[in-house]
Design a protein that fits this description.
CATH class of one domain: Alpha Beta
Bound molecules: adenosine-5'-triphosphate, magnesium ion
Helix content: 25-40%
Number of helices: 8
Distance between the termini: 32 Å
Structural class: alpha/beta
Radius of gyration: 18 Å
Strand order of the largest sheet: 6-7-8-3-9-10
Oligomer: single chain
Order of helices and strands: EEEHEEEHHHEHEHEEHH
Number of strands: 10
Shape: globular
């Protein structure tokens, strides 16, 4: 469904992503792992079209995507920025209108607010929300828009335990519905639980990729994903 070929991004003399290629099916969750500075966020910004890559191509169902691709590939960013003067509900209404959702979207929106414990703040302005509430507002709005490819940059950080569980359940449901999902995370246990496949990135290069079980087999002996990660990125 999604194919990335030779994605490259430089910042001055730093090569943040170096000819990165990977593919992803609908209904598959790919974990993007890597130490700080590996290039995960830069990859997401380039995929979602918020940052212009220096080279490479992104294909969706074999069609090459142009820069306007927000309705195909949606990003839930690391730092949640909401509109200060829109309420939580207005964020959802804004997305519903710009994504031209079919009438009846309100029911799904209400359900998402309920699950993410935002119902009590549905009429609160963006500027008055806590960081976790901002993050959940963006999760609700992005999930509502039903893009076929969803990117989550460090989604668990900043969410309370209930929020983390709801998000995990949402991701499992979206996967079952055929959404292609990429998640970056430093939480290896949650990567292991959620992801069908992993790509381990360092200095913008994919050092290893495969199912968790395949990556484990590469390491010597009976190893945890943490052992494998540390060995590969050492
Ligand atoms: N706007 C920028 N200007 C200059 N260099 C940048 C910029 N954004 C990222 N970089 C550099 O690109 C590289 C990749 O950074 P990136 O933020 O993608 O890493 P990351 O894998 O998301 O790390 P983290 O786990 O800390 O979130 C780093 O060397 C970083 O310093
Ligand atoms: Mg990052």
């Amino acid at each position: 469904m999604l194919r990335v070929e030779g994605l490259t991004k430089r910042f001055g003399r730093t090569i943040a992503i170096d000819r990165l290629s990977f593919a992803l099916q609908g209904g598959e969750v790919l974990g993007l792992l890597g130490p700080n500075g590996a290039g995960k966020t830069t990859t997401f910004l380039c995929l979602s079209g918020l940052l212009r890559a220096d080279a490479g191509a992104i294909f969706f169902n074999d069609l090459r995507l142009g820069p306007e691709r927000g309705r195909t590939i949606a990003l839930i960013p690391e730092t949640p920025e909401v509109y200060a003067m829109l309420t939580v509900w207005e964020h959802l209404a804004f997305v519903a209108r710009s994504a031209e959702l079919a009438p009846g979207w309100e029911e799904r929106a209400e359900e998402l607010l309920e699950r993410l414990e935002l119902s009590a703040v549905r009429d609160a302005l963006g500027q008055s929300l806590s960081k976790g509430m901002r993050q959940k507002t963006l999760i609700a709005a992005t999930v509502l828009a039903e893009a076929p490819v969803l990117l989550f940059d460090e989604p668990m950080i900043g969410l309370d335990p209930k929020g983390q569980r709801e998000l995990r359940e949402l991701i499992v449901e979206l996967r079952a519905a055929g959404t292609a999902i990429v998640i970056s995370t430093h939480l290896l246990e949650s990567a292991e639980a959620l992801c069908d496949r992993l790509v381990i990135l360092k200095n913008g290069t994919a050092l290893a990729s495969g199912a968790v079980s395949e990556l484990r087999q590469r390491a010597t002996g009976d190893r945890t994903l943490e052992d494998v990660f540390l060995e590969i990125t050492a």
